[in-house]
Amino acid sequence: MKPADIAHLHSISAPSLSPDGDRAVFAVTRPDLEEDAYLGSLWSVPTDGSEQPRKLTRGDRDNAPVYSPDGRWIAFLRPDEDKRPQIHVLPADGGEPWKITDHPLGAGAFSWSPDSARLAYNARVPEEKRYVDGTPDQEPPRRITALKYRVDSLGFTNDRRQHVFVSAPIDPSGEAGEPVQVTEGDHDHGRPVWTPDGTALVFEAALHESRDTDLVSDVWACLPEAGAEPRRITRGVLSVGAVSLSEDGATVYFLGDELGPELVDFAGRVTGLWSVPFDGSEEPRRLTGTEDPRLGVRPQATARGVLVAGENRGAVELYLISPGGVRTTLLGGHVEVQGFDHAGGVTVAVAGGVRDSGELYVITEDGTRALTSFADPALDPLTPTELTARTADGNEVHGWLVVPEGQGPHPVVLMIHGGPFAQYGWQLFDETQVYAAAGYAVLYCNPRGSSGYGQEHGRAIIGSVGAVTSVDVLAFLDEALKDDRLDASRVGVMGGSHGGFMTSWIAAHHGERFRAAISERAVNAIESFHGSSDIGFFFPEPLYGPPESWAKESPLTYADQIDKPFLIIHSEQDWRCPLEQAQRLYVALKRRGHETEMLLFPGEGHELSRSGLPSHRVARFEAVLDWWARHL
């Protein structure tokens, strides 16, 4: 795979089933290098596999389709002339879509009312004279009074709060009508979900008085009308997200994190499935354990239980959780489930693997059957080999090795993931494929601190992040280098975010093992990260220990020990790990006369390597390959 081959990769949105389960609708999106954008349209396919998928829309950035409960309509997001997404409605049996929202900053997540007459959705409401005329440098100054006022990849939030709206009745003539703004105030509100009787909306939000100094969010309910007073359903001690309802509306299901006594300690905690009565008469009940898979993707209640997706040893599997908390695997193994839906007794899921970036599958009692085949045959990815190492104290380190074609011995690139509470896994990963195609053996693993292996594994690095993670990563490297196809004298290390932190740390403490390093979007100085990152006010503790230990835990402290060629890659608009984190390390190395370079990407945030402009992703790959060609 060459850098420009990212154009051959695709992604499939979360699918939506017709009420009878007979058809699935979804969006397919690909990077387009000529347009330097991500282009996508809606597709449909029968779930019995009797027909090939067919294209539904001619838009080039259509996404997030959802069938109406009566099956007559498909609502989806399409950018307007200002490239801001607005909700459109398409007749399910064919015809032209029409726009039903016209918000200055676009519309977001939505859900249909049970009678298919209206949509409840999110939209950001800008302060007067902001974000509307294309001259941001001429806007009035921002008055900041809170700790939580900005988010990476979005920007400032204190002057454009996300609220809940309800659309006017759906009018097939194409008249949009005026929506109703349901929520108000200086708060953000999550995706609204209708109760089955259509009398209320349920959403997650942090509306409590101490919301600026803790990470609590709750489940709330309110009437679908202007000025409605929200009613809190949960009790103010959890971080709540991804709310859904049982089929009878009596139970709210949600994904949630426990936060410790200070209500800010989320480091390494396993997100679980919770339930609470809609009337709030009981305490929330956790249905999955802290050593179970870490859950993600909005849960969906069915007659048999709740569908959820969870991280498990590099996989993302689809589970059915019974009301009593019993977990059944519906789609497991070497897969990465990215979205799912259930209707009419039919379950479908989008899942990728090591040879494709995602296809749509129908899941039956007899097994799983693919409904799509969008993988580009021009790509022939190399298959990773699973590898397990053990540290001197017996800790297991799980990971993978991709070996390029040819006899070798091959130079080696050791990759370290971000997070730290995240995982590498069983997926077609453009990073590994591009480097392996260029002749490098690629190693990547899930050391302590990673997700997918339980809460004890995830929290094992607290207070000693660099030292503990290094033990696991180097043990994995040692195990891999037993393979004669790998050249132990030509090894490089690289990583982004937490992986960039670890690259800087390892280059300083274990530099003799490597020829060169690439640190991307890294945390290098914890003390300044604390004051400059969008998550800095709560993230460093307890992960890096108390403030008095931050200098000892910061890679920047040991910059004078880095003695190998060092490339720093950063984005100019990164608010997660701000640019000063890169600049400070660059200056420290450069003033010593050390061989170092810094590559900065204009207009990009923390997610450059995953969702940045296609041209920037290609340029990044080319810079990485150039660096390794020079030094490995």
Automatic annotation (TrEMBL):
InterPro entries: 6-blade_b-propeller_TolB-like, AB_hydrolase_fold, Peptidase_S9_cat, WD40
Domain of life: Bacteria
Keyword RNA-binding: no
Nuclease found in the keyword field: no
Domain Peptidase S9 prolyl oligopeptidase catalytic: 426-632
Renumbered residue ranges of the record's region Disordered: 1-21, 44-63, 169-192
Keywords: Hydrolase, Protease, Serine protease
One Pfam short name: PD40
Positions with biased composition (Basic and acidic residues): 51-63
UniProt protein name: S9 family peptidase
